[in-house]
Amino acid sequence: MRRIVLTLALVLCLAGNALAENLLVAAGAGYKKLVTDLAAAFEKGSGVKTELSFGNMGQVTTQAKAGGVIDVVVGEKGFLEAAGLSFAGTAPIGRGILVVAWPKGKTLAAPADIAKPEVKRLAMPDPQKAIYGKAAAEYLEKSGLAKAVADKLLVVATVPQVTTYVVSGEVDAGFINRTDVTGLGERIGGFLEVDPALYAPIEIVAGSLAGAPHAAAAGKFAAFLATDEAKAIAVKNGM
Q: Which of 26, 79, 112, 121 shows the greatest Cβ crowding within 10 Å of its Cβ?
């Protein structure tokens, strides 16, 4: 009888684990803190175990297209649609804001100061791989600064890489997003928002992939993003 009870207990335990809800959310590296905060609050409130994957958006979309693993992708709506991903639905998170940041010991009075001689190295994410790189390129063209800064540009893959260069003082300024710069505090000299009229709107969404392995959990995450709690987290993270 004891063996029967133990066997039944083991079977029930395994069945419980098999039925437990899980969710895998993938996002661009520049949204690590935002997505981590959202996932933690969602998991706490729903009980759905939420795992996260970060990288440049090229890597994220490639993994998402492979199918069978990722449930939700967080990124810029237009970029995700252009990547050819198929979504069961998308949930808005907020609007991305482009900023120019600089290291300790430097000061910019306006974003256009990046063209001044004292700014010798200017970092930006790759316009082909990161939406904020694309936004930065649009800003430089529309503001008429592209030629003035062409020789000082350092193009890297992701927003966090630009942030690293700014924090370390290896560049005199860099284009990143307000989400990534939030929380850096005294680690940098400061930042200024770029005129949003000089680059296309950046709409950040969470897309539930069509055929997601955990579609029900993805639906719950989308519903969570519409709550006041999720919106407050987005605002706190610079959305």
A: 26
Whether the Cβ atoms of residue 172 and residue 116 lie closer than 8 Å to each other: no
Which tokens sit at 10?
Answer: 């083991």
- Strands 72-76 and 22-28 turn out to be parallel
Q: Indicate whether 102 and 91 sit together in one domain.
A: no
pLDDT band at 20 (very low <50, low <70, confident <90, very high): low
Q: Report which secondary-structure segment, H or E, holds 99.
A: strand 98-102
Q: What is the CATH number of the domain that holds 89?
A: 3.40.190.10
**HSE (CB half, 13 Å, CA atoms) of 125?**
32
Count of beta carbons in the 10 Å neighbourhood of residue 95: 15
How many folded domains does the chain comprise?
A: 2
- Taking the whole predicted model, whether its pTM rises above 0.85 is answered as no
pLDDT of 192-214, one tens digit each?
Answer: 999 999 999 999 999 999 999 99
In 169-191, which positions are buried (b, 16+ CB within 10 angstroms) versus exposed (e)? eebbbbbbbbbbbbeeeeebbbb
Query: Quick one: 120 and 33 in the same domain?
Result: no
